[in-house]
């Protein structure tokens, strides 16, 4: 099924096409790896909604990526609860270990490092989201173990080229 067909099928479940924007963005991101401007425009055109509505949602939610990201997107919470539990120190550690700054992607395309305003998991502070999974009660040792685990997972995959180096749809 093409991306258009998937979006149209998802949109058919909603009484208002605007309500289908988020599911459509999930489909488009799965297809393209990220959501550059032309993809956002295509989603808006398929749904028949204002382009600004699509752009607003795509740029508001941290689950959507306007720019290419690595195989593992590390999103460290830097809100008050996490900050009070030393998330800033963990960010510095991640930057040092990965050799990138916040917002960067490792040269091998494995990791993109970001901070997010709040993951809504204060009871697990400090917390980081990797893909769809939350990792909480973090310290340097837990982060190092998590990075090792992610590297092991990546080595099991045949190709570890960056998501943005893959042709659309792969």
TrEMBL record:
<dbReference type="InterPro" id="IPR041921">
    <property type="entry name" value="NuoE_N"/>
</dbReference>
<protein>
    <submittedName>
        <fullName>NADH-quinone oxidoreductase subunit E</fullName>
    </submittedName>
</protein>
<keyword id="KW-0001">2Fe-2S</keyword>
<dbReference type="InterPro" id="IPR042128">
    <property type="entry name" value="NuoE_dom"/>
</dbReference>
<keyword id="KW-0408">Iron</keyword>
<dbReference type="InterPro" id="IPR036249">
    <property type="entry name" value="Thioredoxin-like_sf"/>
</dbReference>
<dbReference type="GO" id="GO:0003954">
    <property type="term" value="F:NADH dehydrogenase activity"/>
</dbReference>
<dbReference type="GO" id="GO:0046872">
    <property type="term" value="F:metal ion binding"/>
</dbReference>
<feature type="binding site">
    <location>
        <position position="82"/>
    </location>
    <ligand>
        <name>[2Fe-2S] cluster</name>
    </ligand>
</feature>
<comment type="similarity">
    <text>Belongs to the complex I 24 kDa subunit family.</text>
</comment>
<dbReference type="InterPro" id="IPR002023">
    <property type="entry name" value="NuoE-like"/>
</dbReference>
<feature type="binding site">
    <location>
        <position position="118"/>
    </location>
    <ligand>
        <name>[2Fe-2S] cluster</name>
    </ligand>
</feature>
<feature type="binding site">
    <location>
        <position position="122"/>
    </location>
    <ligand>
        <name>[2Fe-2S] cluster</name>
    </ligand>
</feature>
<feature type="binding site">
    <location>
        <position position="77"/>
    </location>
    <ligand>
        <name>[2Fe-2S] cluster</name>
    </ligand>
</feature>
<keyword id="KW-0411">Iron-sulfur</keyword>
<dbReference type="Pfam" id="PF01257">
    <property type="entry name" value="2Fe-2S_thioredx"/>
</dbReference>
<keyword id="KW-0479">Metal-binding</keyword>
<dbReference type="GO" id="GO:0051537">
    <property type="term" value="F:2 iron, 2 sulfur cluster binding"/>
</dbReference>
């Amino acid at each position: 099924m093409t991306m258009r067909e998937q979006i149209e099928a998802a949109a058919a479940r909603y009484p208002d096409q605007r309500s289908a924007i988020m599911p459509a963005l999930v489909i488009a991101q799965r297809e393209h790896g990220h959501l550059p401007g032309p993809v956002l425009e295509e989603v808006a055109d398929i749904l028949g909604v204002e382009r600004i509505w699509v752009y607003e949602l795509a740029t508001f939610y941290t689950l959507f990526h306007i720019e290419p990201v690595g195989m593992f997107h590390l999103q460290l919470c830097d809100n008050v609860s996490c900050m009070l539990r030393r998330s800033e120190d963990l960010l510095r550690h991640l930057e040092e270990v990965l050799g990138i700054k916040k917002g960067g992607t490792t040269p091998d395309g494995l990791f993109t490092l970001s901070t997010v305003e709040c993951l809504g998991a204060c009871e697990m502070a400090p917390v980081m989201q990797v893909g769809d999974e939350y990792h909480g009660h973090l310290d340097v040792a837990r982060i190092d173990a998590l990075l090792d685990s992610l590297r092991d997972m990546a080595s099991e995959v045949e190709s570890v080229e960056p998501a943005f180096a893959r042709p659309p749809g792969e």
